[in-house]
Amino acid sequence: MDKIVLQDLGSKLEGNLRIDNLSRTLYATDASVYRKIPMAVAFPSTVADIKELIHFANAHKIGLIPRTAGTSLAGQCVGEGIVVDVSKKFTKIISLDQEKKQVTVQPGVIRDELNLYLKPYGLFFGPNTSTSNRCMIGGMVGNNSSGTTSIQYGVTRDKVVSLKTILSDGSEVEFKEITAEEYVEKMNSKSFEASIYKNIYNELINSDVKKEIISEFPKETIHRRSTGYAVDELLDNSLFGASDKGINPCILLSGSEGTLAFTTEITISLDDLPPPLSAMVITHYNSLEDCLTDVAPVMECNLQLCEMMDKVILDCTKNNREQLANRFFVEGDPAALLMLQVNAYTEEDLEKQVKAVLKKVKESNLSYAEAVLKGGDIGKAIALRKAGLGLLGNIVGDRKAVACIEDTAVALEDLKDFIGEFTLIMKKYKQQAVYYAHAGAGELHLRPILNLKKGEDVGLFRAITTEVAILTKKYRGSFSGEHGDGIVRAEFIPLMIGDKNYQLLKRVKSYFDPNNIFNPGKIVDAYPMDESLRYEIDRKEPEIKTLLNFSDSEGILKAAEKCNGSGDCRKTHHMAGAMCPSYQATKNEKDTTRGRANALREFLTTSDKENKFDSKELKEVFDLCLSCKACSSECPSNVDVATLKAEFLYQYQEINGYPLRAKLFAHSTKMNRLGSKVAGLTNAMYDSNFISSLIKKISGVAKKRTLPKVSSVNFNKHLQLFNNKEYTTNRKVVLYIDEFTNYLDVELGKDAIEVLTRLGYNVSLYYGESGRTYISKGFLKQAKSLALKNIEKLKPIAAKNIPIVGLEPSAILTFRDEYKRFSEDTEALDAISKNTFIIEEFIALEIKKGILTSDLFTKEAKEVKIHNHCHQKSLSNQKVTFDMLNLPENYKVSIISSGCCGMAGSFGYEEEHYEVSMQVGELKLFPAVRNSSIETIIAANGTSCRHQIHDGTKRQALHPITIWKEALI
Prior knowledge:
Blueprint: H1 3-11, E1 16-18, H2 21-26, E2 40-43, H3 47-60, E3 64-67, E4 82-85, E5 93-97, E6 102-105, H4 111-118, E7 123-124, H5 137-143, H6 150-153, H7 156-159, E8 160-166, E9 172-176, H8 180-187, H9 192-204, H10 207-216, H11 231-234, H12 250-253, E10 262-269, E11 271-272, E12 277-285, H13 288-293, H14 295-298, E13 305-310, H15 311-317, H16 321-324, E14 336-344, H17 347-364, E15 369-374, H18 376-386, H19 388-391, E16 400-401, H20 415-428, E17 436-437, E18 449-450, H21 455-474, H22 493-497, H23 499-512, H24 556-561, H25 581-586, H26 593-606, H27 616-623, H28 630-634, H29 641-656, H30 660-666, H31 668-677, H32 679-687, H33 689-699, H34 715-722, E19 732-737, H35 739-743, H36 746-758, E20 762-767, H37 772-776, H38 780-799, E21 804-806, H39 809-812, H40 826-834, E22 836-838, H41 839-848, E23 862-867, H42 870-875, H43 879-885, E24 891-895, H44 914-923, H45 925-930, E25 937-940, H46 943-953, H47 960-967
Parallel strand pairs: 2-4, 3-4, 19-20, 19-21, 21-22, 23-24, 23-25
Antiparallel strand pairs: 1-2, 5-6, 6-10, 7-11, 8-9, 8-10, 12-14, 12-15, 13-14, 13-17, 16-18
């Protein structure tokens, strides 16, 4: 389509329309295996905008693809028309009716954030998907989502009270429950809405049509059934004689994947919060068959959830930093686990329910171990289960667990036999499948492991899907339990419900959408399931040379391809974790981990340039990455965008030149070294309004930033002052004086020397530039040179297992992280990594050994609030800082749930990034600091974090080692 036509459309919207290459690329995929480049992406602000888009789509015969978080697994959110993203503007919670237990929201409200809002009222929205911290109510209605708690609280369709929609003719219509009389009255007007009511009535009043639906649709006992349109459930009312219920067309729209109308408001029913006490019994099995045998018996108990994970998923968790800690309950090497949760109002009742579950399990004697979890441990286990989808991306290489047959649901009594036959199909195709998810609801997310870059495996993709569809039909199961039909399953709908019923669905679609503008190619007249895949089949793989070593992912392209689109990076600051700070500030898809990985994959694959990194789109997409590394641990697939960005910057700047400001920041240690020789003069210049303004203007630093002061200290002499010779010789420690400590935070170095020597350690000093400033700016040759020098110097120290402790996390942790991509000396790297610690890690270990005790510290009462560096959160853990600062007997210590501070080294100093930097700080950190009393000590171990806290709140944050120095007796 002509760009001028699209630009004219954009000018009519209060929101905006993007037709640039990057935006279209970012919205070409969702969490499925499909890729379709849309002609544009719209971000409507108002209902009028959506009407304008509908008018345009009708006039030009193009499709509108509705989208919220884009976590769809079946390809619902991809298409060649205009993607309409309502996740930015349609995000209001409109009203709450406590008496009716109903809430009205716009489609872009996030499920978990809705429940945070509802919690004070004692209410919650029950359906609970694995994506609940970023999926949106609109998407849940579109897919008829259910999740882990459906055995207690039902599916989304059960909860929809009313929907305000815009029909394909542009009219605004609200669908809700009405009586048979009201239905007939609606049919008698001459509106487009009336024609829909009339046509549906004429279809479903026919007894032959009813019989065909009842005989061919999935068993009524299967609650998770979203195959096609829910015309079977629409029969259950007084109008069609099945019951005395009213009729609610929302039943039809729920699970319709945006193919019938465009929803703008949703009213859903709520439940009372579940009983406050809970316990989870986790049973371990040596075989999948044993595990499935136990499902039916344990479901006789009053379970809140009954979930299963198999060995493939469990093994993936071993390679994920965040989820590794959540494996604490796993005993041995189980083939499968069942997670069985019960809730109660009293401890007595809870214990009674736990015993009942354990009794059932013991009766079969199939489980070899049972763990009973309570309190916060249950949340950790559920987090492990929820991460299952994303963790499948951890499989290295091109073979991945593919979503195609992962949504089958059968009656509980058929589950074991169904899985038995399914396993035979997998053996026939020599497939190792993945089994996980909602065992108690008769649904297992079964996935074959395929390489969809290869024609042979694409053939298997279709063959396996077809055979499993036939098997599912044999048991009258649902081929789409909760993930929807999308592209991957829609063409199997005629098989699943019969051709007569399929023709009925086509007619229903035509009644609502005669011009086929709403999400075409889904549910009816489906796109082929084995076309429009993410990768060109049997392509010649691009050869991408990099300076950093990406062999752990088989190259940088496959490192980007690890992203499966699950969208964990779209959670907002209201949720736990730091990923992804720039997205949390801007709410733009391009600023997510997913967006960056998708863009890198796309342009490395499709670019015809010699240097495929030479792309203005990639420059834009990486621009707001703060290199916080949250994604390297919080992303289930461990997509490390900070490392991808470092390589991109290097490659791009090798072609396009290194900008002056990048050079200044990269080489800042050299300038700090020179400045420290005349520290008084340097700092006086920084304090001068005129000179500092000039420096900032020349170097592109934000006017509102304060320039860090330089200092000069002889740390060797300072060490001699405190070297009391009273240490034991086996308590040697090397204190790493990094480039920040050496010239900027010299007091920290002095404090660390004093603390360690006073505690009886034999301290020696190691001076070295970590290369952090070079890495962050893509000066990888210089960074590699420093890394190799440090590795050679540190090798003999590490060989003696002498701890190497550092004060600045971003510097010392390069030894454990980036250095592995610069050197192939794995033996030296492993030894250095094993013996390298941020100082809080070292001290926490010494506390655990009983070497350091509270007797060494003041008894004075103080309150301390901790903000930890992002690299510590990603590569280490926050508890070590808590353990260190909690040692003084009367210190009341807490960790601020702060995410990223927003400074991120040089990022927050840069003029064009200042606003985003401060927005990130304002999300969590700044308010938490401002709300702390003036007597409260703010602890922050990152040099840039302390500067950001000062610039954002005017509070002086202290490094934990400084706090300890003041606390030592």
